[in-house]
């Protein structure tokens, strides 16, 4: 029985939620190990659409234990709103477990996220404004608040006093905002303590014991490789480890326990927020992908920037994550195109590069070198086996497999749970 890590191989919104959800009832635990409510995972079950932010996709599978592990940053208000909304729709959320070591997003983190972006002006990152960056910054600076602190009012107050000491100077003197009082923050956070208490535990211990019993664990990444704090397009990234290594540090299991690392990639590519994107399309073709693919953010509603599949990024993702499999989603969105361009290399100031450049300047200057593949007209949304696909679509998938350096185990042909082609089972060795 494997431990499987599912991560984004591009800039997010690849369909990780759906990829996790379809593993279904054979999974005992689904673990969110990084990020927070900057994520937005849409899962469609029997025509019903669920948008998950903080809750792992396993919440929709009866019998599966969803876990919010230590690497996540939690906005408690959002957590309970999301739980209440799901409960109102008849989803049982009572199995949810939350790590006592996860960090808490406080109101001042959200404020600082937004004022910093405004201050940066045209150098802004285009964050989701959820307080993610400032919360991780406090974690690394050792002035963060952890879930366990909610149960010790004296300690909580002390920590918030310490954090606000510096932050109020910043808010008042640099950003011209009002100071935040210790009392208002303590009161807000304590207001959630009783309700969260029964869910809180040492999740690393729970997960290691589950592995010892041979149970099946899926680690569901938020964000993606190109948004990873170390391996992404810094500084236009999120503030957590969204690559496969983050599954270990973010949950407390060792690397030797992971059997599979699955990257999720669209048959094209999208990005939300600022930063370079070599294959971005500014013309009608980009608009077509956005409209047919429904490329609008699940979290902020922002239109996603769209472009052709970038095999340089795919090879890079394969390498830094040690991918064993790729899940290729949204193949159906390409139906009707006469030719499908794929970026196979970059031209950087006259030099052809097969590999991801390491510096920001070179990546910003990268011009895609395209190879064109033949398109197809047939509706493929009903295809359930590889052979059901038109020959040219099969060729497109095989070519992506070859130039991406990783086998494509599953292919998405529509948003629904059932709309996929399984070539290799992700849960068997
Ligand atoms: P995530 O953040 O990686 O979980 O992805 P999002 O949920 O933000 O965005 C992916 C979108 O594509 C969602 O609206 C999904 O319902 C949808 N989707 C996933 N797989 C497919 C697919 O194979 N075909 C189509 N047409 N839509 C898909
Ligand atoms: P899922 O899990 C796409 C982007 C933001 C911004 C940058 C930093 O749904 O794939 P942050 O608020 O994290 O500090 O913003 O990262 N971003 C995402 N883009 N999908 C996501 O999540 C994202 N989470 C953050 O747009 O560019
Ligand atoms: Mg998303």
What key phrases describe this protein's structure?
single chain, 429 residues, alpha/beta, 3-stranded antiparallel β-sheet, 19 strands, 31% helix, binds guanosine-5'-diphosphate, binds 6-O-phosphoryl inosine monophosphate, binds magnesium ion
How is this structure best summarized?
With 429 residues, this protein is α/β, with parallel strands linked by helices. 31% of the residues lie in helices and 20% in strands. Helix 3 (107-120) crosses helix 4 and helix 5 crosses helix 6 (182-196).
Any overview of this molecule?
The protein has 429 residues and is of the alpha/beta class. It is built from 12 helices and 19 strands. The chain has helices at residues 16-21, 76-88, 107-120, 132-140, 153-174, 182-196, 203-212, 245-249, 284-293, 311-321, 360-364, 391-404; strands at 3-8, 29-32, 41-45, 48-52, 65-68, 73-74, 97-99, 103-104, 200-201, 217-220, 260-266, 268-271, 305-308, 325-329, 339-348, 351-353, 367-374, 408-412, 420-422. It has a 10-stranded mixed sheet. The longest helix has 22 residues, at 153-174. It is globular, with a radius of gyration of 22 Å. The structure holds guanosine-5'-diphosphate (GDP), 6-O-phosphoryl inosine monophosphate and magnesium ion. Residues 8, 12-13, 38-41, 125-128, 130, 132-133, 222-224, 227, 238-239, 272-273, 298 line the site of 6-O-phosphoryl inosine monophosphate.
